Amino acid sequence: MAEVADARAVWRRARPLLGTLVEIGADPSCDASAIDTGFAAIEGVEALMSRYRAGSDIVRLNGAPAGTWIGVAAPTRRVLDLALRLHHLSDGLFECAIEGTLSDLLIGHDGSVWKQRPLAIDLGGIAKGEAVDRAVLALRLAGVRRGWVNAGGDLRVFGSGEHRIELRDPNRPAQRAGAAFIRAAALASSSACYSDHAGQSAIVDPRSRQPLRMRHGVTVLAARCVIADALTKVVALSADVHHPLLARFGARAWVIH
């Protein structure tokens, strides 16, 4: 987990979204109402990609029978396309399927998706990062020059200057493990610090279909939050902070004990 420590951002608001508390900070030069556009962008991603929201693209995809084409919105298609790409590039380590495998999904030229076999998807391991990125875009279009979006530790900062990011100790979440200074970048973390079962993370190992046990935290820095979010799973599952996908996407990773 990580949080932004930035006293220069006057407007600072939080709302419960994406199964966590989302905080948006913005520079004092903008209208405070601009923050609402960031929250609206996050709500839009959640409405399309949550497997718990009735009528979402993912609910419809999961409920459709195998062997059918399903039309989805362009944002959902982009995230599914990236998820499928990461799945292949990581040799299956990145996996969003809770039934079947992402390899059973095909994306058509017209934007529809095809379920070759029974398949159910949960985009929780990548859509949160996408929501953060969409919120940043919305904020910039609304005239916010500097700020951040933090969705429970999946965060992105934008604008000039450095932002101080405080990292939590994965074993003692009430304590800080250190700080990082980043500018115009995204950072995502995965650990088991808030698990109901000690050492058992929310990451499911696709090789065993069991929750991954972690006594440490994994943090990834990337240009976009959707990439940082997804790559924390690859690094955690591979136990490789130099995994080739990091260089491919211009990302860096480190482990916090």
Radius of gyration: 18 Å
User: Helical region count?
Assistant: 6
Distance between the termini: 13 Å
Number of strands: 17
Helix-strand pattern, N to C? EEEHHEHEEEEHEEEEEEEEHHE
Number of individual domains = 2
The largest β sheet comes out as: 7 strands, antiparallel
Give the strand line-up of the largest sheet: 2-3-9-10-13-16-17
Globally, the shape reads globular
CATH superfamily of the largest domain: ApbE-like domains
**Helicity level:** 25-40%
- Poorly predicted spans: none
What's the level 1 CATH class of the largest domain? Alpha Beta
Strand content: 25-35%
Mean pLDDT: 88
Give the oligomeric state of the chains in this entry, treating copies of one chain as homo and distinct chains as hetero: single chain
Q: What class, by secondary structure content? A: alpha+beta
Layout of secondary structure:
Blueprint lengths: L1 E4 L5 E7 L2 E7 L7 H16 L7 H7 L5 E2 L3 H16 L7 E3 L5 E3 L5 E3 L4 E2 L5 H15 L5 E5 L2 E5 L4 E6 L7 E7 L2 E6 L9 E6 L4 E4 L3 E6 L2 H14 L5 H5 L3 E5 L1
Antiparallel strand pairs: 1-11, 2-3, 3-9, 4-7, 5-8, 6-7, 9-10, 10-13, 11-12, 13-16, 14-15, 16-17
Outline the structure in words.
This protein is an alpha+beta fold and about 260 residues long. The protein folds into two domains: about 1-30 and about 145-255, T-fold (Roll), CATH 3.10.520; about 45-125, T-fold, CATH 1.10.3980. About 30% of the residues lie in helices and about 30% in strands. The protein contains six helices and 17 strands. The strands form five sheets. The chain has a seven-stranded antiparallel sheet with strand order 2-3-9-10-13-16-17, with helices on one face. A hairpin with a 2-residue loop joins strand 2 (about 10-15) and strand 3 (about 20-25). Helix 1 (about 35-50) packs antiparallel against helix 4 (about 125-140) and helix 4 packs antiparallel against helix 5 (about 225-240). The longest helix has 16 residues, at about 35-50. The chain starts with a strand and ends with a strand.
